[in-house]
Design a protein that fits this description.
The complex is a heterodimer of chains A (169) and B (143). Chain A folds into two domains: 80 residues, Rna Polymerase Sigma Factor, Chain: A, CATH 1.10.1740; 89 residues, Orthogonal Bundle (Arc Repressor Mutant, subunit A). Chain A has ten helices and no strands. The radius of gyration of chain A is 18 Å and the shape is globular. The N and C termini of chain A lie far apart (63 Å). With 143 residues, chain B is mostly helical. Helices cover 85% and strands 0% of the residues of chain B. Classes of the chains: A mainly alpha (169), B mainly alpha (143).
Chain lengths: 169, 143
């Protein structure tokens, strides 16, 4: 009974879990580990799933918490370079090479956003969650969700405009 | 065409403010994926296409489900072995029981036969008493 609930609701979400954790951790391998771990964690908790109203949101909350834990432990253990730290200003060349691929350009700009905005834009524009669900997942109120979303979108649009202007001049 | 463009740019400004609904965003997505979008919106098209593309990425590590099915496989094997062993044991038990029954019947039959024999023997002994009396009398006379 509980395992049926698990495979019906949780396993169908595994792509979303993967994409969300990839966005938060900005690493494919780390995201795969995180997805595995989230699925395992929820499997252990499968008996409690029937008490949850919105399983999708619950799964995403679990994913978010796990990713934040991973990020925190990464920061405290080593001074590893996180992607967003170095590919910002100096490496014009690499960003121009990247620019050939429009999708990766957008993806890169999203990764340059602050953590919270990154999560919100991912949940909204890629995963199509409603604002209500995002409020629940990110533990934010409706105004701050809207503001974060708007800032993230404006930032990406302005970055894209900038990079396309380079191309012309 | 012009009114359509106006409508789209209105949706886009709502989108930028974070006030568009999911339905409106779906409309924008559909508009940009049609390839017939206005070139002024090139940047937005890039954005929506990239979102669309990202939403199609799949999680590759499918370890979980295979692990589950292999679990079932072992449970199935164990259960069938149990059933076979149980069947064998029951068959053996049944045949043992049958043997016991046979032995019991044979025992009773032998007992009956022996009883009959001993009864007849006793009858024979009764007749012998006459012989004894006869020899006693004979001794009295002959002495």
């Amino acid at each position: 009974m509980a395992s049926e609930l698990y495979s019906r609701h949780v396993l169908t979400l595994q792509d979303r879990i993967f994409r969300f954790s990839r966005r938060l951790l900005s690493s494919e391998a780390a995201a795969q580990d995180a997805t595995q771990e989230v699925l395992l964690k929820l499997w252990k908790l499968r008996d409690q799933l029937k008490n949850v109203n919105n399983i999708e949101a619950y799964v995403m909350i679990t994913t978010k918490n796990l990713c934040y834990d991973v990020l925190k432990s990464k920061h405290s253990k080593t001074l590893e370079l996180v992607h967003s730290n170095y590919s910002r200003e100096g490496s014009c060349l690499s960003s121009e090479i990247d620019a050939k691929d429009e999708a990766s350009l957008v993806s890169k700009f999203i990764n340059d956003l602050p953590e919270q905005q990154r999560a919100v834009i991912q949940l909204r524009d890629v995963e199509q969650f409603t604002n209500k669900e995002i409020e629940e997942i990110m533990n934010m109120n409706s105004t701050s969700v809207r503001v974060a979303l708007s800032r993230a979108r404006k930032k990406i649009i302005s970055e894209l405009k900038k990079s396309s202007d380079y191309g012309i001049k | 065409m012009e009114s359509n463009k106006k409508y789209i740019s209105k949706l886009l400004s709502l989108y930028e403010e974070g006030e568009s609904t999911l339905e409106q965003e779906q409309e924008l997505k559909a508009y940009f994926s049609s390839e017939a979008y206005d070139s002024d919106f090139e940047i937005y098209a890039m954005m929506f296409k990239s979102f669309e593309e990202e939403s199609k990425t799949k999680y590759q590590g499918n370890l979980k489900t295979t692990k589950k099915s292999s679990n079932y496989f072992w449970i199935n094997t164990a259960a069938s072995i149990c059933i076979v062993l149980g069947g064998l044991w029951y068959f053996k038990y049944q045949s043992d029981q049958q043997k016991m029954e046979d032995a019991k019947i044979a025992f009773e039959k032998t007992q009956n036969a022996l009883n009959l024999l001993s009864q007849n023997m006793n009858k024979g002994l009764e007749k012998l008493e006459y012989v004894e009396v006869f020899s006693e009398q004979k001794n009295k006379i002959i002495k």
